[in-house]
């Protein structure tokens, strides 16, 4: 039997990090549809993130993206966040939008370009120092579009060298978390295409290097929860980038394409003690809201993670292990499905009420009038997007 | 035995259409890397296309894209092309970049948006009239990102209605060619996701409606040559959009990711008489050159199609049919592979020399000094891209 | 608001057909693990199917597979079924296990082999006459393993000819339902790989020919509910073959791999009136239980379809359409998700009790002692499997 | 410039291992089509393998599969092979066909089943001792079909324990090579699904543990040559299992589905010195010939590997590196494609003639009359297949 008060306690303790870029404009290569009220600067993004935290109570951190979130005084930005109940989460580097990075950054054939990329990464650690951020999140767009375009192993050498230099710069409490991605924007090969590549680099770097699992970055048919379980077993799971996709890296709201997969992933987290603070697994959203309202979409995403977490916590592990040990295929599967099929929305409403929150975060957000206010106020200036 | 003079004649008669947008800047949602010398207007695009035709001798047509190629006087644009040895090929509509099209165009729930989309399509037919173009090429970004977002069958009804109105506007010698695409920019469902959907609409519209097979628009594992063969059997293959992809719609140079697949596709075309002018199959490139030089990449792509065509024409169909009839699995496969394994580059050099062309189109292009000239001359103004 | 009594009525009226082969042994190319108590003949399979119907109340039909279910007196077999409350459902042909069919059946290059295949299909219609079956279900293993092995369009001609002959033999109330499959056991191309091919053949055959959607037979990323919606719009959806897969055609229990997809499919059915008896959509299971207990797995599968159906029926279509018309992306999605997130198990328990059934079909089955009885009784003889 | 005499020397030194099971009957779960002349025992398989070596000159090793190739006296079997110019290659274990292995072998929840599996693996090492085989090739069918069926990390623990025991048993010159596979026959998760998992286990085991790359065991879109390059860089590439697939693990002839991919893989091998004997990379076929003649199919496969190797060796690495360093995307790709587009069949005919072989291995095989002889002689007895 599952202990409901423990489940509630775990749900209250959950922390989901939201991305600053999720509040800005975004789109596809075909079109970015701008929305009214979108932030013009990092301060406004943090204000929006604070709304999400106010409505849900479980989103106390916001990831930054450099240079999109570059400000003159990062300590001031962090203070601005703290005043609104938020911490600065991961600092995300960007080595894909400078013209010099057309053929790569840390893995580029030209040492001058690599130098530029490494300097950017080191600057990101400076920003971590200034903001109190723990995690340097690295995703590299590096790769090639055509067979033969560059040397795959040569690029690995350069990548390893760059990572080592940046790793050496980390403080004792800081971490490097390394994301992998099957494809895009490099189309023939990417330099960190899968968890194995990220894991192998992390092993060589040291204990402060961990793998980021972005739920949208796998080939079709990949069993993501296996990877999560494996990395937890190896103590190398650093963070999640949550989002959904039906086919490619679509950046849809987490839980919107395959809620059962999200549940299975979080079941492995729960079963392998991945929610324990000591494991330091960061639960981040990494999504972009191209056609839907941004703040409500983030709130909905946070709720989707909460609901999948609640279901995962409801799995009767004793019954599960008993059926597994007995080789009872249908019985073991049924234990899992019982939890999944439970409607946990009443439980979460209860949890929220016990936390002094509105049981319905979306209604709570609507009631604030924030949306109308930003639409009215954020006029003029340049809306934030992937380009700024 | 294959008749080599017939092969040569077929190669000389081949016509490959190049896209105006392939000469402009393009990229991914992450970054568009601008290149020097890129055209600023449709006239300059046509000048570049003329260079490709001059170098290869088989690229006498250029596709337009509206509004990217909108000019005040389309008849003048067509005349400008003719003076350079080119014809205007397909007119490509664009119903995905106007802010009104955030949730779709011809399938949008709002009749006003649909009206706007249909008016655009009708304008494209006007441009066909003005330029002498035969083909209205329709690709719709329509679809949804989230389950439930809109009604799938309702959208089909609206799509069918719009297509019917535009079809009725076509002249006797004009065609509507309807492209399908598995995903992107719509991520949950697209309104014309596969050849079956396009085919079903074409059947209802009439004989002037045909299917466009874009080689990059299929789910993994799809046998594209089967579709090509099936559509040729039904006389519903209108055109190819050639490009390559390793995973998604990557718009890489045709033949660069899977040259054997390209060969198999063109083998079905050859075997089913698809190169015959009466079949009116248009062989178009639809690619974008994000990191490589644009004109050389188009030339290379044209050469790749030529090489795959040459191999396809070299298949000994008598030997193939004989082995097929005998149930000789290895023998039949070997006949096909014999043609594929042939190095056809000497044959194509010969063909080019017989046509009075340089046997090496890329060297010929380099020798013109065109690239240096456009880099020097095309300074200032706004470079063409997907946005203009 | 959804009318709960209408939902209940629809759930009580639902009919799910189970496959005779689901009760026999099955496995992979690597190994068939035999189970105790498995039927030795079609009569015993029907007895097992009757247990499923007794426990669930919604499985009144059983599909036959010829020759696996060949008996001397099919009328007697049908009577045996009727005595147990069952009807004979679809008759499934088998043109893939005779040695003559190594390179195909109805599409084989050799007319003698095609004749043999057609004779088998005609025999299946005889069996339909004898058993009162309405549906001839056709799935062809035809295809090739290697490029060039046979002629794709030639095979289409032969397939079309065979289908036409069999179609002409159908009685007024009989139907031909044509299944498609992406791959396996043919690995390079299959002769009916996708819904478009099946649909095109059905169109030419006539109104008694319909498409079968097997949920496991698509390329990754295919939106199956789109196909379902499209075919319902065209009145060409004949039947479902329900099962699940994570990667290939794994024949897992329906709803076990992606319950949200099953819900979306049934939402399209509900929305497009596909549950209405007049639409004649057959809801069949087509799965094999390799490692789990067979009868309980079938019961569980039936329950999974019921639960997904209940959720689909609970979708508030008025609210959905209203949000869709308003372009409210998040709102429309939320309406759908509200139904999906509902725990419908209490409702189904209620429905069963109102029907005089045990609210827990699996417990009801266990309570019968049937499993112990067949394990004890069905000793000796040859267990049924794919080979017999 | 490539040194042609070095290329020839490398081609003459190449060694391709063929699998004993490739000479026996095989099929799909739907049907095994038996062929005339198929071996009845391991001795006859070795005789067939010797024919392949006689015809090609580069297939001096044959892999065994236990228990399919179990004999009373393995030393005698090895001597029998040596008399025919062959060595025993890898010994392949089988922990998937015993009834006890329904839910797994080394990762099974029941220690008795694990013991049985480990004993089998240890027996395989005994057979290595007796036959002089260097490589214990491990592929585990272990995994689950349903979420929750068993504990993913628990299974990793058990797997690791079993591997460690077997690793400790290896002689100084013996290796353990560990294969990974995305899916099948386990359909929800496999215990070694990807190279990362195999690599992580090998790291912990020690330097005698290496990864096997089976070209058919990846998710769609996976860049296999990246994995090969990465493993060579880490000195953890133990062997290839060559075969082809269009969609799943189809076991088609290597090079038949995507010859360009095979070339790219072997280009990485060549570039990273993987053909050097000291690297100890084993080039094995692992395919089954379901509908085509078996010995000719193996010969054709060997030739396909030779042709792809020849092309890989012809890549002008100096020109390639020069273009890569210069960031010349099209130029670098062109260097690779120049080698790929070369017709290397004349070169290979020359190589064979210099080795005293018939330039056409398939004709040479046909000329032996071996096929007619085995069809005539191998009558009666039980044909070898996956079951024996």
Sequence-ordered SSE layout with sheet pairings:
Four copies of one chain form a homotetramer.
Chain A: H1 4-13, E1 16-19, H2 42-56, E2 61-65, H3 74-83, E3 87-92, H4 111-131, E4 135-138, E5 143-144, H5 152-169, E6 175-179, E7 189-190, H6 195-205, E8 209-214, H7 224-233, E9 237-242, H8 259-271, E10 282-285, H9 294-314, H10 317-325, H11 329-341, H12 345-354, H13 361-368, H14 370-377
Parallel strand pairs in A: 1-2, 1-10, 2-3, 3-4, 4-6, 6-8, 8-9, 9-10
Antiparallel strand pairs in A: 5-7
Note down, in words, how this protein is organized.
The structure is a homotetramer of 388-residue chains. The first copy, chain A, contains 14 helices and 10 strands. Chain A has 388 residues and is an alpha/beta fold. Chain A has a single domain (4-377), classed as TIM Barrel. In chain A, the strands form 2 sheets. An 8-stranded parallel barrel of chain A has the order 1-2-3-4-6-8-9-10, surrounded by 6 helices. In chain A, helix 2 (42-56) packs across helix 13 (361-368) and helix 10 (317-325) runs antiparallel to helix 11 (329-341). Chains in contact: A-B, A-C, A-D, B-C, B-D, C-D. At the A-D interface, helix 5, strand 7, helix 6, helix 7 and helix 8 of A face helix 5, helix 6, helix 7, helix 8 and helix 10 of D.
Keywords:
homotetramer; 388 residues; eight-stranded parallel beta barrel; 14 helices
What is the subunit organization of this protein? homotetramer
Largest interface summary: A-D, 62 and 60 residues
CATH level 1 class label of chain A: Alpha Beta
Radius of gyration of chain A: 21 Å
SSE arrangement of chain A, N to C: HEHEHEHEEHEEHEHEHEHHHHHH
Shape of chain A: globular
Assign the structural class of chain A, choosing from mainly alpha, mainly beta, alpha/beta, alpha+beta, or little secondary structure: alpha/beta
The CATH superfamily label of chain A reads: Divalent-metal-dependent TIM barrel enzymes
Q: Report helical residue fraction of chain A.
A: 40-55%
Unreliably modeled segments of chain A: none
Report the end-to-end length of chain A measured between terminal Cα atoms: 51 Å
Q: What is the average of the pLDDT values of chain A?
A: 97
**Biggest β-sheet: strands ordered side by side in the sheet of chain A:** 1-2-3-4-6-8-9-10
Number of domains of chain A: 1
CATH topology of chain A: TIM Barrel
CATH architecture of chain A: Alpha-Beta Barrel
- Helix count of chain A equals 14
Please report the total strand number of chain A as a whole number: 10
InterPro entries (chains A, B, C, D): L-rhamnose_isomerase, Rhamnose_iso-rel, Xyl_isomerase-like_sf, Xyl_isomerase-like_TIM-brl
Protein name (chains A, B, C, D): L-rhamnose isomerase
EC number (chains A, B, C, D): 5.3.1.14
Pfam family, one (chains A, B, C, D): AP_endonuc_2
């Amino acid at each position: 039997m599952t202990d409901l008060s423990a489940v509630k306690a775990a749900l209250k303790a959950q922390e989901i990090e939201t991305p600053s870029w999720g509040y800005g404009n975004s789109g596809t290569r075909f079109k970015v549809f701008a929305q009214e009220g979108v932030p013009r600067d990092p301060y406004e993004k943090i204000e929006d993130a604070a709304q999400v935290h106010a409505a849900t109570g479980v989103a106390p951190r916001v990831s930054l993206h450099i240079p999109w979130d570059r400000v003159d005084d990062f300590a001031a930005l962090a203070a601005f966040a703290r005043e609104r109940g938020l911490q600065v989460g991961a600092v995300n580097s960007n080595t894909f939008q400078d013209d010099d990075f057309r053929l790569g950054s840390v893995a580029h054939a030209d040492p001058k370009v690599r130098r530029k990329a490494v300097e950017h990464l080191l600057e990101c650690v400076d920003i971590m120092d200034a903001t109190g951020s723990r995690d340097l999140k690295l995703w590299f767009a590096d790769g090639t579009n055509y067979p033969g375009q560059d040397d795959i192993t040569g690029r690995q050498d350069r990548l390893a060298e760059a990572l080592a230099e940046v790793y050496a710069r980390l403080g004792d409490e800081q971490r490097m978390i390394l994301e992998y991605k099957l494809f895009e924007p490099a189309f023939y090969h990417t330099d960190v295409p899968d968890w194995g590549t990220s894991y192998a680099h992390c092993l060589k770097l040291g204990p402060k290097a961990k793998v980021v699992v972005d739920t949208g970055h796998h080939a079709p048919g990949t069993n993501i929860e296996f990877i999560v379980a494996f990395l937890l077993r190896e103590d190398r799971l650093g963070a999640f980038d949550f989002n959904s996709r039906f086919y490619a890296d679509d950046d849809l709201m987490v839980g919107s394409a395959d809620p059962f997969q999200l549940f299975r992933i979080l079941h492995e987290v729960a079963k392998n003690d991945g929610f324990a603070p000591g494991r330091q697994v960061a639960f981040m959203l990494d999504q972009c809201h191209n056609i839907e309202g941004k703040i409500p979409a983030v709130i909905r995403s946070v709720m989707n993670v909460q609901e999948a977490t609640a279901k995962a916590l409801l799995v009767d592990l004793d019954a599960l292990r008993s059926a597994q040990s007995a080789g009872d295929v249908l019985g073991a599967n049924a234990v899992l499905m019982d939890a999944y099929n439970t409607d946990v929305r009443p439980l979460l409403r209860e949890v929220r009420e016990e936390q002094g929150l509105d049981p319905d975060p979306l209604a709570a957000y609507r009631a604030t009038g924030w949306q109308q206010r930003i639409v009215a106020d954020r006029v003029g200036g340049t809306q934030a997007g992937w380009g700024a």
